[in-house]
Amino acid sequence: RQGVAVAAAAAASGLEAAAQDRVIRRETSGAWQVEESARGSEPNLCMMSSSTPDGRSFAVTFLGGANALTVVVSSRGWRIPSGLRVPIRYWIDGNTPWNAQAQASRDGQALVFTIGRDTMAEWERQWRLGAVMTISFPQGNEAPWRFTLTGTNAATSLFVACMGRANATARAPGAPSQPHGGPSQPFGAPAPQPAPPAGPPTK
Fold first, then answer.
1. Mind listing the pLDDT tens digit for each residue in 42-100?
2. pTM for the predicted model, two decimal places
3. Distance between CA atoms of 148 and 174, rounded to whole angstroms?
4. Which residues have C-beta within 8 Å of that of residue 95, sequence separation ≥ 6?
5. Is residue 78 helix, strand or coil?
6. 21: number of CA atoms within 13 Å, CB side?
7. Does residue 46 sit in helix, strand or coil?
8. DSSP 3-state assignment of 25?
9. Are 134 and 179 in contact (CB under 8 A)?
10. Residue 69 and residue 73: Cα distance in Å, rounded?
11. What angle (nearest 5°) sits at the alpha carbon of residue 159, between those of residues 146 and 125?
């Protein structure tokens, strides 16, 4: 199941899946799993993720050689137009929210955005010490999501170790890619269109 999640994260990040992709390391800490995938001649991919029984997931990924983390927020109930830009707001406990312009994946089931080096240290500090992360979708009818951060301190240490190994497999700097989006739908109707179709009702 988690191997499928790695493939989904890779696809959402704009990475071409290779037949020889395989999970070579998998560890769990609390509600979070950290996986490392070998990608043939490509740099290794690291993923720290958590998912819910109803098909929602939040994954932080790193491709060896990249200069940013790629975040993939996905739901199997989403049907977002490929490439659509969707605003996301997320925060940890009572800290100041981060705002991101995510981009919908090709299959319309994920939103992807990046965490750059300028905010990575503060993000990591909050991520390790936090209790709950909340994600909201300002333009759609998707209700806010909440993920427990139980286990993220140890999971982050495992992820950082994976990043070091992934960088060792990189032959050239990589760049993070695109995002994915929504079930109830995290995006609003396109501008001035006669009678735009309504998104599915929020549960």
1. 889 999 999 999 999 999 999 999 999 999 999 999 999 999 999 999 999 999 999 99
2. 0.78
3. 31
4. 126, 130
5. coil
6. 22
7. strand
8. strand
9. no
10. 13
11. 60
